[in-house]
Amino acid sequence: MNPPTSFSEWPKEITGDLAWTGADFEPNTDAFTDHLSNQDIAELNIAVKHFQGKPYMPLMQATSVTNTCQIGLGLARGHADPTTFPLSQDLAKRLQKVTDHVYNGRGFHRIRGINPSSYTDEERVILYAGITSYVADQRARNIDHIRDLSRAQLSRKLNPLELAKPMTFHTDIDVGDMVSLFVQSTPLEGGDQYLAPIASIYNDLMKRDPEVLRILSENWYWERVHRPGPDQTVIRTFNRPVIGFHNNQLQINMAVTFLGANPAIPFSPDAPQLTPEKIAALNRVQEAATRVNLRIVPQAGDLLFINNFAVLHARAGFVDSPHDVWNQRYIMRLWLHDSHKGWESAPVLQRKLDETFDLAPAQKAYWTADEMARITPGMRIRQMGLSSSQDHD
């Protein structure tokens, strides 16, 4: 079946596993959660030490984990993968099932049971890189460290990702088809995560205001800041829709900042202004997402995997402890793509994806938060293995 080529051909309703609402999961959050056992955690700990080349006691029962107790791998962290971060066949298969949930099922999945406080900063990075390598065979060039930086009194202007303010529903722009989040610690208050599938937003709007969907399917003017070199800034512009069909799946690529709808981050002076109709359309999307969304209350150690082409995410504002780092919101983020099961980007959305997965393992900046903090944003360029563009609101 060919995808619809014009809005007049779009279906009146989208059905399937992605057409869920929060009410479908709120009574049973275990439906989208894998709980790691003590045996699983022991395997992961051995894999971390194996990668580091540190002594460890092998598991007494048969697994596929090597029996060698010390191997000096001497590899960059970007090399953490199933060959260097070995797990039993059982745990490996369970992690690989996450890929199906994200691409062929509900569009998201959660793994729970890790205690981040039992690892060093380096070990948590290795753990994250190793686990995600079983979920997808391609990982982005760097791990991001997301926390409120307003207390640091930095001289530069902070972007929304670095503040404790709420964030509206969005997708990460021009990156991968899967977003993974690894919760290191949670705030004193707030910080809840919200997910909303575009399929259910579409169904809601088709009933209430289908004109919004038509507007979203038209070309919009986009602006994105790109940094090709140290302290160099280039404004990239696009004319492309917000939603589109491909392989019989509806996809969305949306973050209001890059569409000119964030007053705190204005477009260049000669850019076209958003029309009232487009502003209203963006507001209707937020309202529909709020009606269908699922609220997820994070716990330290959670790993959340989201289909970035099909599910929008948002975040509540939060309050950190002024002194206790384990009561401050801290999230690691890594974009993923699986070359066997992953989604192709809808051509009409014109996503620029070539700069996400273009580095070899040894070049990837899988750094700790302290290592990353030593590099100023103006220096975060490809040559250092870092993403150089803001990716969402």
Architecture blueprint of SSEs:
Layout: E1 33-35, H1 38-52, H2 89-104, E2 108-112, H3 121-135, E3 138-139, E4 144-147, E5 167-170, E6 178-185, E7 189-190, E8 193-197, H4 198-208, H5 210-216, E9 220-226, E10 234-240, E11 243-246, E12 249-252, H6 276-292, E13 294-296, E14 303-307, E15 311-315, E16 318-319, E17 330-337, H7 369-373
Parallel strand pairs: 1-2
Antiparallel strand pairs: 2-14, 3-17, 4-17, 5-15, 6-14, 6-17, 7-16, 8-13, 8-15, 9-10, 11-12
Helix pairs in contact: 1-3, 2-3, 4-5, 4-6, 5-6
Large-scale geometry:
globular
Oligomer state of the chains in this structure: single chain
Mean pLDDT: 90
- CATH architectural label: 4-Layer Sandwich
Task: Kindly report how far apart the N and C termini lie.
Answer: 35 Å
Question: What does the largest sheet look like?
Answer: 7 strands, mixed
The helix-strand sequence is EHHEHEEEEEEHHEEEEHEEEEEH
Number of helices: 7
Number of domains: 1
Provide the low-confidence segments as ranges.
60-71
- What is the radius of gyration? 21 Å
CATH superfamily: Clavaminate synthase-like
Question: What are the defining features of this structure?
Answer:
alpha+beta; seven-stranded mixed beta sheet; four-stranded antiparallel beta sheet; 17 strands; 22% helix; oxidoreductase activity; TauD/TfdA-like; TauD-like_sf; oxidoreductase
